[in-house]
Amino acid sequence: MNTTIQKSDLHFDSPFEEQVYDRLRQIGYEVDTQVGMSGYRIDLAVIDPNDPSKYVLGIECDGAMYHSAPSARERDIYRQRYLESKGWTIERIWSRNWWNDPNSEIERIDQTIKMLSKPKVTASQ
């Protein structure tokens, strides 16, 4: 899996992204921004609370430009499939949903992180 930690400076593409980052930090998650892999960048990468050597979730924050460009949507679908093929789990937060109800969006992401970061139980345990 290619989801090992890559330390970098904080960089945000939009105030929306920064707000999502701030809320994730407020509820206790470590988050890196603009994590690069094979020429692709993931907006926000959440560090696994149970294994700080890897990311548990990549988050894409899609703003107004995304909704107005069919080619951007197609490119992002390909990009997401590529990243998932490399071991990433990707969630999207749509700006429209964020502005309407940021608490529900953060709760959804929080539940996803909790599910993904649960220690795996093997048959021998």
Concise summary:
The chain has 125 residues and is α+β, with helices and mostly antiparallel strands.
Description of the molecule:
This protein has 125 residues and is of the alpha+beta class. It has a domain of 74 residues. Helices cover 43% and strands 22% of the residues. The chain is built from five helices and four strands. The chain has a four-stranded mixed β-sheet with strand order 1-2-3-4, with helices on both faces. Strand 2 and strand 3 form a beta hairpin. The mean pLDDT is 83.
What is the percent of helical residues? 40-55%
Q: Strand count, sense and closure of the main sheet?
A: 4 strands, mixed
Number of helical stretches of at least 4 residues: 5
Q: Can you give the mean pLDDT? A: 83
Query: Radius of gyration in whole Å, from Cα?
Result: 15 Å
**What global shape is seen?**
globular
Tell me the β content.
15-25%
Alpha-carbon distance between the termini?
24 Å
What is the tally of beta strands?
4
What sequence of helices (H) and strands (E) makes up the elements? HEEEHHEHH
Which descriptors apply to this entry?
4 strands; globular; 22% strand; 5 helices; 125 residues; alpha+beta
How are the SSEs ordered, and which strands pair?
Elements: H1 15-26, E1 31-37, E2 40-47, E3 55-62, H2 64-67, H3 70-85, E4 90-94, H4 95-100, H5 102-117
Parallel strand pairs: 3-4
Antiparallel strand pairs: 1-2, 2-3
